[in-house]
Amino acid sequence: MMDKHWFQGKHVLVLGLAKSGYHAALLLLKLGAHVTVNDAKDITHTEEARHLMQKNVDIVSGGHPRSLMERSWDYVVKNPGIPYHNPLVQEAQKQGIPVVTEIELASFVCKGEIVAITGTNGKTTTTTLIYHMLKEGNCHPHLAGNIGLVASDVAKNVKEDEVMVTEVSSFQLKGTQFFHPKTAILLNISDAHLDYHGTREDYEMSKAKIFQRMTAKDTIIYNADDPAVSRLVKDAKGKLLPFSLAKKINNGGYKENGAFYFQGKKVMEIEEVSLPGAHNEENMLAAICASLLHGASLSSIQQVLRTFQGVEHRLQYVGNVAGRKVYNDSKATNIESTEKALTAFSDPIVLIGGGLDRGVDFSPLIPSLAHVKAAVFYGETKEQLKATAVKANVPRVKTTETLEEAVKEAFSYSTKGDIVLLSPACASWDQFNTFEERGKTFIHAVQQLAGS
């Protein structure tokens, strides 16, 4: 098995800077590697690149020159967002150079146990819930993942008696060989990121790599209501701990008579929890199972579920503006996420959506648009989404060029008691660098309206 000492004196190419590349480079330096960072953008003037250059890291930016692969590399550490058809990645694979992702590095230096959470939807919410439950229970957790906390930066501070709770994506998992969590959680599987993976099979197999190094001493928490999930865990070697909203599961977590249970013991009444939406019940059940497994008390779990208001950009309650409840769900980058957001509310909804055009058919949204009184769409997909809303008989549908304009239109269509919801159903990359930037732009636009 590979360990951190394998990087001593090795020559490593880090593809893509961003947060993950920056922290991967710093960790590799700490492990004694010779590091070169390559980014398609000109990064030479960024604070991160300047810092790395001061540490004798070679920076090659403004493109991915093929000549880079004429050097002798021991490893390539790839930013998860860089596709596998990238010429440098393909050449590395052709040469037999190991291509790994930053989460792999994190696992080499993490001295404590890793709780890893994946799935198409709900990862961030579940990860954050587990962290707070363990923290409330004095279990010494560390939070990492696509929440702005890079795992390779967090992992080096995790002690042997501590836990790193980390969200992991299919992009990250696809590039792992030795990643070995103590507890793995698979929430759900649906069509997503097929532009990256190419096929549904590749997407599923990438998710399933979370189990590849697990043994009978490890635990797999999984959604027994999801057929794809149940199929993927069938051959995994960890102990299986299922959860279900549909049926009683004596050896796992389940919902019965309006309450959450774990292995026959009542946890709490669902009407006491603060998170809206039936889809969050799955996330909460998964978090309950993991937290109890890692030593949290029932009282600490109950306290978190009563007070947790959601994570930033995931059905985040922005506030009450002129009698309208405003929610930021910018992290809803696919249809299923938006479907779940729309079914989380019983009050009339004014929906704001749109973003990057990936050639997606939006017709699966139609049933969940039943309680939408008005919709405003912007960006590359505005016309496709408009056509979908018209088919769903949404009473008022409008398109705009920008998100800021969409916010103004949405408020003009709303009245007191309505929900104003940003849930784009699309990636942010047509007008924004990240879904976080999109969410912050939305909140700023709402705040400007509130102050006007």
From TrEMBL:
InterPro entries named among the record's database cross-references: Mur-like_cat_sf, Mur_ligase_C, Mur_ligase_C_dom_sf, Mur_ligase_cen, MurD
- The enzyme's first-digit EC class, named in words, is ligase
What Enzyme Commission number(s) apply to this enzyme? Answer: 6.3.2.9
Q: Which SUPFAM superfamilies does the record cross-reference, listed alphabetically?
A: MurCD N-terminal domain, MurD-like peptide ligases, catalytic domain, MurD-like peptide ligases, peptide-binding domain
- Which reaction does this chain catalyze? UDP-N-acetyl-alpha-D-muramoyl-L-alanine + D-glutamate + ATP = UDP-N-acetyl-alpha-D-muramoyl-L-alanyl-D-glutamate + ADP + phosphate + H(+)
| Stretches assigned to the Mur ligase central domain | 117-290
Major location category of this protein: cytoplasm
The pathway that the record names for this protein is: Cell wall biogenesis; peptidoglycan biosynthesis
Q: What keywords does the record list, in alphabetical order?
A: ATP-binding, Cell cycle, Cell division, Cell shape, Cell wall biogenesis/degradation, Cytoplasm, Ligase, Nucleotide-binding, Peptidoglycan synthesis
Keyword Oxidoreductase found? no
> Where along the chain is ATP bound?
119-125
Q: Which domain of life is it from?
A: Bacteria
Please name the HAMAP family in this protein's record. Answer: MurD
NCBIfam families, per database record: murD
Function of the molecule: Cell wall formation. Catalyzes the addition of glutamate to the nucleotide precursor UDP-N-acetylmuramoyl-L-alanine (UMA).
For this chain, the family text in UniProt reads: Belongs to the MurCDEF family.
| Name of the featured protein | UDP-N-acetylmuramoylalanine--D-glutamate ligase
In its UniProt entry, the species of origin is given as: Aliibacillus thermotolerans
Q: Which gene encodes it?
A: murD
